[in-house]
Design goal:
Length: 296
């Protein structure tokens, strides 16, 4: 059985996925923007704008992961893990800004007569949809492997781009099939895409904000830590157990109940044993604060 990856290894893997997204989005911005201008499709130009925010957000994710992987120092004794969900919040904000700008420009375009989109833009969009969905699935898998809100946020940004491309494809198809009088169909498509982008922004914001607020992590973390503590000889039961996530690491505060007649030294040794058992079984746990309570 392979050892679990270290927090630094998880951060490095997340950074690699962010860099991959940056490179892909630079190419997509150039391709979408050029095709949108030449093909008279604002939906495609809006798609290029959304990909532009992807570049910024992927860089922010990369920077957040790099910061989160730093070791604790005098000013940050609990480490720099909050930088990781903070990066996810910035990504959510970038999505909202992009949605607002696209919506504003779409409304202006709907009110302004313009040419029908070119047919070749559909082929460009088909390639973009395939590529973005592939990036979404790959980056999301990495985000789940390294348990990173920021990397998962970056993945959802790719999915948002795929959605805007799908709506643009539909809008341009309607415009081309309808002919004169349907020129604004792709602008309406860009406007509809804004709703999907806002939804994705919330999807990113909610778990990242919960982590910033020290929300209890999903899953069975509390139950598992209680069970591990109660397996240690000398521990009669557990009382309070709080778990919070900071970046790639988890911190636990635990109250154990022991025989009230044992010595302070013995209670101290039991607490250390509890901490060692939990951290060995759960490598993602960075620290366990154990408080000893005497049995009544």
């Amino acid at each position: 059985m392979e050892p679990a990856p270290t927090n630094r290894q998880r951060a490095e893997r997340g950074q690699e996925s962010a860099l991959m997204g940056i490179i892909a989005n630079v190419a997509l911005v150039l391709g979408k923007g050029t095709a949108g201008i030449l093909g008279h499709s604002y939906a495609l130009v809006a798609d290029a704008i959304e990909s532009g925010t992807d570049i910024i957000s992927s860089f922010i994710v990369w920077l957040g992961l790099r910061t989160a992987a730093r070791e604790p120092d005098e000013n940050h004794p609990y480490g720099h893990g909050k930088a990781e969900p903070l990066a996810a919040l910035v990504v959510a904000g970038a999505l909202l800004v992009a949605a607002g700008y696209i919506a504003y420009e779409s409304i202006l375009r709907i009110q302004t007569p313009h040419q029908l989109p070119a047919t070749f833009t559909l082929g460009v969009l088909a390639v973009i949809i395939f590529l973005k969905e592939y990036l979404y699935r790959r980056v999301l898998r990495i985000g789940q492997e390294v348990d990173s809100a920021a990397v998962r946020a970056d993945a959802w940004h790719h999915r948002a781009d795929a959605i805007t491309s799908c709506t643009a494809f539909v809008g341009i198809s309607i415009a081309l099939l309808g002919g004169p009088g349907y020129e604004s169909a792709d602008d309406w498509a860009a406007l509809v895409a804004c709703g999907f982008i806002v939804y994705n922004a919330y999807h990113i914001f909610r778990p990242a904000f919960g982590e910033i607020m020290d929300e209890a992590p999903e899953g069975t973390w509390t139950q598992d830590i209680r069970a591990l503590a109660e397996s240690v000889p000398g521990v009669l039961a557990t009382e309070k157990c709080f778990v919070r996530k900071m970046g790639f690491e988890y911190f636990a505060d635990l109250h154990i109940i022991v025989d009230g007649n044992i010595s302070v030294r013995t209670g101290h040794d039991i607490a250390h044993h509890v901490k060692a058992v939990i951290m060995q079984a759960k490598p993602a746990v960075y620290n366990v604060l154990v408080h000893v309570e005497p049995a009544e």
